[in-house]
Amino acid sequence: MQTLxxxxxxNIQYDETLLxxxxxxxxxxxxxxxxxxxxxxxxLLASWYKITDGFGPDNRITxxxxxxxxxxxxxxxxxxxxxxxxxxxxxxxxxxAIAAGQSSCMSFVAELVEVLASYRNQHGNAAWNASKSDGxxxxxxxxxxxxxxxxxxxxxxxxxxxxxxSSRDTQWIxxxxxxxxxxxxxxxxxxFLYYLKNQLNHSIPDIIAAGGDSLAQTYQNLTGKSxxxxxxxxxxxxxxxxGSTPQLATENPFPLLEGLRREVxxxxxxxxxxxxxxxxxxxxxxxxxxxxxxxxxxxxVDSAPKKVTCVATVRGFGLPIYxxxxxxxxxxxxxxxxxxxxxxxxxxxxxxxxxxxxxxxxSALQDVLINYGVGEDDFSSNLVFDLPGVVGHVDLSIExxxxxxxxxxxxxxxxxxxxxxxxxxxxxxxxxxxxxxxxKPFLDVAARYVRSDPFFSLVKSLPDPPQxxxxxxxxxxQASAQIATLAQHAPDQARELRHAMSSALGITPAVLDExxxxxxxxxxxxx
Length: 527
Hints:
By secondary structure, the protein is an alpha+beta fold. It has 16 helices and 17 strands. Strands 6, 9, 10, 11, 12, 13, 14, 15 and 16 form a nine-stranded antiparallel beta sheet that branches. Strands 1-2-3-5-4 form a five-stranded mixed beta sheet, covered by helices on one side. Strands 7-8-17 form a three-stranded antiparallel beta sheet. About 2% of the residues have low confidence.
């Protein structure tokens, strides 16, 4: 056994004879990972247990990376002063050093929690005995909260399923089982502890401090109530019907909520699919910047098809059933329970805007074919779609809704709008060079008097060609105020800019001035 190093509370050792799949020693990398986190984790966990002595330079814990255990990932010998030892299985066959390091840190936390509990047990507090089911549940809870990725990589299927898929014996709520080896009892303990934490909103330090000789006693110490088994069972059985509940993908299905307290969240991520291809090209008489003379420039339109990934997640649901709509049209077929990928197609009406230098931003309502795949698990649903053959900027509204599989028929939903940009307009290099050349002297003057990033963003995107109207409008009010500031020092250039913006946006200079005044009044009112 080689010694890697020493910290304020730990000696870290590893077995240099353990060889990975590549034939090289790999225990040292696991030991280095644990050494990098051990002091921070000790400080946090000791504060959770409110322990301030018994550990330190005279009572260091020895951590050893050893050959893998036949069962379990780590062990400890309880609190033994300077002879306290935590042994962590090296996962020698794991070629992924990062994953093995994360799991090693998780195992370290699980064992350190038990050592701290042992110290308290020896000093008059019998709660959270590591050899009982509730102590094992707390050990797993803390390990998962601190190193969730390592936990999932190491254990795979959540332990709470052992109890949820069984006859659901609740006797271990009122009397902890005198073993830490039964997945039924410690799986129940872990689920009950998450019920205390995320359903009843008690912190881990508070749960530890309230620890009694059973989970029911801990519940009573926290809530003042004596209905632990009934309250827990009623909630669990309502959302996860006995005999009909699939394997959960998480140890923590809480909180379980009702009505408006539940929510559906939606994320949209368009990304390129395939190579861009040429659509159209031509020559247009235009000005790259309002101070530039007009000239003939070549333009090009390319299509870059997009694939859009939509992910719906929920908070407050037990077993959600998801439904999707695009521009008011239901997916057909919809997602199916326990089927990872259902494919189909729908046709929706959507506004499609096309780019053309001579006729910019031409929009029309048209039928759009959407090919999709959709699948769901316990807590999320993924919709992936593309728009075959559509060239342009397609406006879509994506709606995701969720209802409970068992608990109720209430529906919660959310929606987001997205423009899928399957087309892009760009110009020959001379156009952009002329724009930079014309823009520079103006910005040099403006920079001496105006200090506003939105102002400069707007100036750089002044529309000519005017397909960029929307970006200008977003910052119009603030930019109008900045033009007024510029006018105090460079009235001629401010006048030119005001005229250019007014012409491009189709409004009068007076309206632009009023917007600037309104912004100034709002700023003064805020002050």
